[in-house]
Amino acid sequence: MSAADLASSCHAATVAPQPRGQIRPATRSESRPPRLSVVIASINGREVLEPTLDALDAQTIRDEMEILVVEAVGGATRAHLAERLPVVRVIPVQERMSIPRLRALGGRAATGDVVAILEDHVAVVPGWAEAIVAAFERTDDPTLAAVGGPVLNGRRGWVDRAAFLTEYTPFLPPLQPRDPAAVPNLAGNNIAYRRAWLERHLDLLEQGRWESWINAAILRQGGRLEARDAAAVRHIKPFTLADFLTQRFWFCRSFAGMRRADQSPVVRLIHVAGSPLLPALLLARIARAVWIDKRPGHRADFLACLPLILLFLTVGAAGELVGYLWGTGGSLERVE
């Protein structure tokens, strides 16, 4: 089934409201577009999807939001969506697509002027939706293309803390730059786009590119990115050691393989030669973020998890080396 076919079928897959527990059903008029659309690619199952959706249901402007779940797990997870949610637009996918392609389906189907992209394992904090919407609505500046927020750690296991610092240290609060002219570094799992800007670049997601490619294209075209520390999410996916080692390798290979496609042979060779230096370079960046950039709350975790962080960075460097040498090799479809 094509992306267009799947996107057009989402109305037929809309799940009817089902009262349950304390969930407050949305009452937004169908004739009025939502202030915020939220796109979630569901690939990790009910254990993490349920708290992700709970946090969205608790937002004070939930009645003015639409949530689109591009569901690729099937089985009990898909059945649970039909049983539990008050209002949700479900786009069922039968084949295991890459996460960017799943997000592209949701982006095509979204109807709000602002379209947020979340992972299926992040719980938004109270006030997240208001912060996102307010950032766009406070200005008429059409160049404001994207707004994102920090990523917080929601798990306390040793592997979970090490995985979080390896992956998300660049997105710890405070994320808003002190210099208003500085370009913030926005996480791809907690970002919202003005729909007009997103639609220009959905083809990048359909090609399997991550949101960082969209953000780079926006900046080249004169668009702006903004960070809002109030628009934070909490990462809640649990990892075993084997899980994260595998995921780190596949993600880093996919990322390097995508970059390889745009590089000349000389640039590619430079990246191949530099791959062994990556663990030391990235570890220094993590240490700087934790120790120098005034994030003392993570110093104890950094010291306790240092051996695992080094292991994860080394495996990631191996993934990048393979990606620069041989391309993505199907790694993108393995990223969860």
UniProtKB/TrEMBL annotation:
GO terms for molecular function: transferase activity. The keyword Signal does not apply. Pfam families: Glycos_transf_2. Residues 1-33 are annotated as: Disordered. It comes from Isosphaera pallida (strain ATCC 43644 / DSM 9630 / IS1B). The keyword tRNA-binding does not apply. It comes from the Bacteria. The chain crosses the membrane at residues 269-291, 303-326. InterPro entries: Glyco_trans_2-like (IPR001173), Nucleotide-diphossugar_trans (IPR029044). Residues 37-201 form the Glycosyltransferase 2-like domain. This is Glycosyl transferase family 2. Keywords: Membrane, Transferase, Transmembrane, Transmembrane helix. CDD domains: Glyco_tranf_GTA_type.
